Amino acid sequence: MSARTVIAVCECFGTLGRALPRRDLEAGLSARLAGARIEFFPGLCRAGDLDRLAGLLAEEGAAACVAAACSPFARGREVLAGLEERGCAAALALADLREGCAWLHAQDPAGAVAKAADLAAMARAGLERRGRSPRASLPAVQRVLVVGAGPAGMAAAGTLAGLGVPVTLVDRQDRPGGLLRQIGRLFPDNIPSQDFLAPLEEELGNPLVSFLPKTTLAGLAGDPGRFRARLANGAGESELEAGAVVLACGAMPVLPEGRYRAKDLAGVISQMELETRLRRAEAEPAGWDLDAAVFIQCLAARDAERPYCSTVCCPTALKNALRLKALRQDTAVSILHRGVMAPGVALEELYRRALAAGVRFYGFAPESPPEVLGQGRAAGVQVRDAFSGRSLDLPASLVVLSTPLKPQPALEGMARALGLRLDSLGFACGREPVAPLAAATPGIFVCGSARWPVYAAQAADQGRAAGIKAAALLASGELDPAGLGLPGPWPGTSAVRSAACSRCGQCVAICPYNACRREADGSIAVSAARCRGCGACAAVCPSGAAAVPESNGPSLRAMLREAMGGAPGVDL
Amino acid sequence: MRAFTSDSDPAPRTPALPVLVVGGGVAGLAAALDLGRLGVPVLLVERDGFLGGQVMRLDKLYPTDHCGFCPVWTESAAALAHPLVAVRRHTRLLDLEPPATGEEGAVAVLETRVPAVDPALCVACGLCREACAARGVAGAMQDRPVDRTWDPAGPPCPSIDFSLCNRCGACVAACPVQAVALERAPAVERTPVADVVFATGFAEPAGPLAPEFGRGSHPDILTALEFEALSAEANGGELRRRSNGATPRSLAFIQCAGARDARYLPYCAGVCCMHALKQARWARRRMPGLACAVFFTDLRAVGKGYEAYARAAADEGILLLRSRPGLVLAPEPAAADAPGAAVAVRYEDFATGRAVTAEFDLVVLNGGLAACPLPGAERIRPKEGPVAGRSCGFCAEPADVAQSVVQGARAAALVAQRLVRRAGGRP
After folding, report:
1. Which of A71, A479, B187, B249 could covalently link to A96 via disulfide, CB atoms 3.0 to 4.6 Å apart?
2. Measured between alpha carbons, how far is residue B348 from residues A43, A205, B254, B294 in Å?
3. CATH number of the domain at A144-252+407-474, out of 3.30.450.20, 3.50.50.60, 3.20.20.70, 3.40.50.300?
4. Interface probe, candidates A434, A476, A480, chain B, greatest B C-beta count within 10 A
């Protein structure tokens, strides 16, 4: 060892003294760490002590420094960051002598001193063999691809353009709007959906937005900050470079098919069909004549096949029941439900408005579903009211079936391309619940009903949220690979030594971030933009080729050797 | 900073005014971090001593059943470390005043009340406590405040119980980092800000909302957040009755207690059904024999993975009862200490149509959550759009963690877009 190692012990203002008496600790460390210079500081979280330590390291020309202080969860990280800020050239490591030692073993000073020496020695041993990941520069392409132009995608694209980020917005339809184009009015305020879409369309007028109609995402390659998307339209495929991707491909309604005699009785229609009829009737109310309507909720939802509540169907039924009442006040309207799902302030208020307008509500149990009566056309609905237990005969010339939203069939393939996880129902997942729109891969976001059925306003909110997150990721022009913004050294990036690599591909299979990839020639490469330094690849690599330099095999073995030092039967 | 400077003018302009984010819960944190990462300076004010808000008081988060502490703490740490995010704890917004003529934005009136032991400086060395004890007034220096308003991720900062303190100043002298001061006047300052995001969150209203449920009449009748604290793993995770310390045999949750009720809170607080299911499942995981009932009006498990969570709760044997109890009766004071004296819940059993009385050792009243006020909200540029565009999280509309995070980012997006427009935008 040419240059010395400095062990900087933080005394935490004298509080470690009970479990780690200074004289014993100094003796223990000196005995264990031959050749190291041991220095005590009252409090390394103070700027003065950090200045002194940084100066000492420079003067000593120290190659390594172990800050024997508190844990990274207290101020430890800040100590290392403070030394880095002071231009310290030595390799740095932390040994937790406070929470993990002095606090834990307050009753056993001798044991605590021995453990403190072990921890410091292990940290030093690890440092000697530790490598350093190169700090890759990861320039980010200043363009975001937004897939799907429903309210979520439109809001995402509008937000990005409004923040100065160029956007490519693609949709399989020929114009933006998504499912909203088939819906006349929106709950809870009953505004025409056109009025909701108009400001979003205006935002898409920003010259930074290019909209590609009748275009789908066929594949995605590349890395965060520099994705290469394959876009397909009728004419063929093209490639687009994008720094980030927002997936907003929406969901689609389940069709009633034959259930509740929808195929053999006229007047048994889906909620979507009612939307069309209502739009026509509201434009031309003269010919509208309806004496009684019954809504049946939870068709093909909350059952064994689709064990979920689709969020939007109850408010939609409330809204359309009120629209029926607005068209003809004396239309008898009943809603048969399995719980009225109207959470929050605005939706509960909508529910109250429906009650006040005379809409009747009857609960039914899934095991005794309503029965639609009639010959040729719907005449009524028979239902056992779950509350009173009575059997009710409700006349109905119109029976409206509420079905849930289900994932787009194309979602599975797109999610695979983007590295997005799907839940058991086939919807895309973010990092629930704290980062619900962000995929594990930086630069991939999901919003709107592709993630979970939401209504127009929620979809647009999620689109704006995804938009600002994508813009923020690209804002500095470079990606922050650790992405945590925490002080202190970053965790490092894995590397695969091709000379030692057997190309078995186990690292590719295990990497949770799709950072380990097989190149065209069969070799394995690690993407610095994706790697989070978790070390899973190093753990499975049978030939020791994959390693995160900051915690590579030699350094881990050196630490273990220190820890087990001379224990019988230990061969490292 | 790209969006806020032009290409031809790479030099920073005069320092931009910060956007004020009021509230450091998950919604405010999301807004502050997204703005900061975008290059917009932020002033984040939080009335408590820690960031993370109510999530820090929650034991586990539905539907993942993971602890919320770590991911939210990571966000808190990122906000504290971000060069463009200035965090002011123990600070509340009193009011907003109009900006100086010709200026945009508003002037925020902020009040900061730093506690006697400043958590921003404290390193939890404990020397103050020892000095305090040495003067013979042991106990004045508390290990931590009883209400847990310490930074759960930072050093467990002590606090002073001024009912015991004799103001000798030994703690002040003992503190190696000058974190202790016995007198700290609240500081009020006026700061110009470019715009405001409200994320003030929610609170359980102090008064009993529905007197028939007997909140406050007996220690075994609790609110949802009181039960959260009672049952949290961080507090030992061992469920005990508050009346006599006995292990409870039965537990009831009464949903919509004071909510969806024209007399009190007319709305649905959105989060309580899932919250009750989470609390019930965790209580039974820790105490498998515990009988659990949830009295609900509509079981609103509306959200990603929520229905599956509710089904699992029912499959595990949690009794889900569609009924709205009419009365919760605390045991007579004389009987309160007797073993077995339980809280009576009177409700209509819809299967039989009869009124039934059931007894429970603990009763949790769920649903009474109210949005916190938005000081000065009506005074901020009403012409530019509704306040709703500036508020996020529960103070805007009942929201759980996932919804609050989205709302926070969305509010940040709207504010950032406004700033770009005001600045003439790019390109």
Report:
1. A71
2. 64, 58, 13, 14
3. 3.50.50.60
4. A434
